[in-house]
Write a structure and sequence with these properties.
Length: about 230
């Protein structure tokens, strides 16, 4: 039944695309685009519901021995999806890593969560949603100043070519625990790269011990004290 419904929606999408290609009436373009999006949303929902119907994610003995589940404890994660069941299955996975999790039922609600003071380090956001979709919501969060690691979540993998510049990572539905781990590793890699780029560059040739002392004073606010800096360099 699911396969039949998906094929039906795909046929409608192809038909609307043909109408767009053949039509010279620009006034109809918005209507066809809305119909295409509606069918794409229906496909995404069908696949998502099927994925959620599966058993909870199992953690093998091998994974328990190789993954440090405390490594990401406290990482703030915002899950954005218009389907509650999808949020719940992702929440269960991230709870394994002791992350701090907040959810939103759509793009508009995600903006309100951010405006109310929750600044996520990772945003896992469904691409196809009614109203404000994942691409629009991600752009809006960035405009508000969010520096989060944005993860696109969708069954429509072919969208990657069109929106890869918007997101930092792509997580297909249905996803596995291994793919969540890969996502966290990509987040950590980007975070470490940012820290490295923000590290101070020494113009003077200083030995390692002096650099260490200088950085220690800097952490304690010594940049505001010229005397302390001079004494450290000497």
């Amino acid at each position: 039944k699911i396969l039949h419904d998906v094929e039906n929606h795909l046929h409608q999408i192809l038909s609307y695309c043909e109408y767009l290609a053949e039509s010279n009436d620009c006034s109809q373009a918005a209507d066809y685009a809305a119909r295409i999006k509606k069918n794409a949303y229906a496909i995404d929902t069908l696949v998502s519901d099927y994925a959620v119907s599966k058993d909870d994610v199992l953690i093998s003995k091998e994974m328990l021995e190789t993954i440090d589940f405390e490594r990401y404890a406290g990482v703030k994660i915002l899950i954005v999806d218009d389907i509650a069941e999808n949020i719940e299955i992702m929440r269960k996975i991230f709870k394994v890593f002791s992350c701090e999790i907040v959810s939103a039922n759509g793009g508009e609600e995600a903006l309100e969560v951010y405006k109310n003071g929750f600044e996520p380090e990772i945003v896992c956001i469904d691409v196809v949603m009614p109203g404000m979709d994942g691409v629009q919501a991600t752009a809006a969060l960035k405009e508000l100043g969010s520096k989060a690691f944005f993860v696109a979540v969708s069954a429509l993998k072919n969208q990657l070519r069109n929106v890869s510049s918007v997101f930092d990572c792509w997580l297909p539905k249905p996803f596995t625990l291994e793919q969540i781990v890969e996502t966290l590793l990509e987040f950590e890699s980007k975070k470490n790269s940012q820290i490295a780029s923000e590290s101070p560059v020494f113009a003077l040739e200083l030995d390692e011990e002096t650099k260490k002392q200088l950085l220690e004073h800097a952490k304690n606010g010594a940049y505001t004290s010229l005397t302390t800096l001079v004494q450290t360099i000497q």
